[in-house]
Design brief:
The protein has 2 domains: 58 residues, no CATH class; 86 residues, Death Domain, Fas, CATH 1.10.533.10. The chain has 10 helices and no strands. By secondary structure, it is an all-alpha fold.
């Protein structure tokens, strides 16, 4: 193998390692179910306080029926007259719940016509990180093709290129 090919392989190796790092460390998939759902609440706190409809949508009843809210918690939240204070109280309670109970909260948002809130806090909006991830995967395919050209020659690399694209 020539020195030029060895240098190219070294550069491709660096590119590959960088892309893998970006794909799996920097751009993790956002499933909306962080290990710490209270962090999700904190990150979207202002949006949630301003946009949740706990009072008139039936959200509190859904959460009670799903076993997320106890009767005491329902009473405490309902005792608040002002909507944003009621939302703050609900978020305070939810931040102390389990991951499964938070999932029930997300499901209750769907059932009470507040899917847009779920989409916003779980990141299911076709966000730019997913687009970047797709671009990085396409670059990885191109790097694979370049590896094949350098290592096994044009004929076999053309076959790989046709299979990958």
């Amino acid at each position: 193998m020539t020195t030029e090919k060895i240098n190219c392989l070294g550069v491709l190796n660096i590119i590959t390692n960088t892309i893998v790092l970006i794909l799996f460390a920097v751009l993790p998939y956002n499933t909306g179910f962080d290990n710490d759902h209270s962090r999700t609440i904190q990150q979207h706190y202002v949006f949630l306080v301003d946009n949740l409809d706990a009072k008139y949508s039936g959200l509190l009843c859904e959460l009670h029926q799903a076993g997320v809210l106890s009767p005491e918690e329902m009473e405490s939240i309902n005792s608040e007259v002002i909507s944003f204070i009621q939302n703050e109280e609900l978020l305070s309670v939810l931040s102390r719940k389990t991951k499964d109970q938070f999932q029930k909260f997300l499901d209750a948002l769907d059932k009470t016509g507040q899917r847009f809130i779920r989409s916003r806090i779980t990141g299911r909006q076709g966000n730019s990180l997913m687009i970047l991830r797709k671009i990085m995967c396409e670059i990885m395919c191109d790097v694979l093709i370049l590896y094949c050209y350098l290592i096994i020659g044009n004929t076999e690399a053309s076959f790989v290129q046709n299979r990958v694209t």
